[in-house]
Write a structure and sequence with these properties.
The chain is of the alpha/beta class and about 160 residues long. It contains 5 helices and 4 strands; from the N terminus they run βαβαββααα.
């Protein structure tokens, strides 16, 4: 798979809600690489030239509180995405900056990785790509959207492993 000629600039801030979440957690460069691969891949029609993204690694309590407040679901979830240009989905804008937050619930991700027989890093890569696609305006509310998003995720994951 080809990549776009210009690699977008990604400014990433990695936040840990508590120090006890650090065990086995990849460095911020790992997450930045996943985001850059998503934005630079030719599956994204109009990648932003610059992105300001914060990834916050949280526990179950903070994830559940955010999920309840913003999605009306009273339980923690593996990842939440918050795009800060809410007027128009990013994927419809030509090369405009991307500003957003990804909130990853590490206890949920650890549990899912174990259940799925994946490494923690592999599952974090997948979820970081998934969350970045959400920031770009992709969704999975219908079966057609879910299939399209899963196809994109797999193509980007394949690029990371080559």
């Amino acid at each position: 798979m080809k990549k776009n000629k210009t690699t977008p600039k990604v400014n990433l801030t990695l936040q840990l809600a508590t120090r006890n979440l650090q065990q086995d957690l990849p460095e911020s460069a790992f997450f930045k690489n996943c985001i850059t691969a998503t934005l630079a891949n030719d599956v994204i029609a109009s990648p932003p030239k610059i992105s300001e993204i914060t990834i916050r690694i949280v526990g179950n309590i903070e994830s559940a509180a955010l999920n309840k407040k913003y999605r009306k679901k009273n339980k923690p979830t593996n990842i939440l995405s918050f795009n800060y240009d809410l007027d128009l989905p990013q994927k419809t804008k030509e090369n405009s900056p991307l500003y957003g937050d990804l909130v990853i619930c590490l206890p949920i991700v650890r549990k899912e990785a174990k259940q799925q027989g994946k490494s923690l890093a592999s599952h974090l890569a997948h979820l970081t790509i998934h969350g970045t696609l959400h920031l770009l305006g992709y969704d999975h509310q219908t079966n057609k959207e879910a299939e399209a998003m899963e196809t994109l995720e797999q193509k980007i994951l394949d690029c990371l492993s080559t």
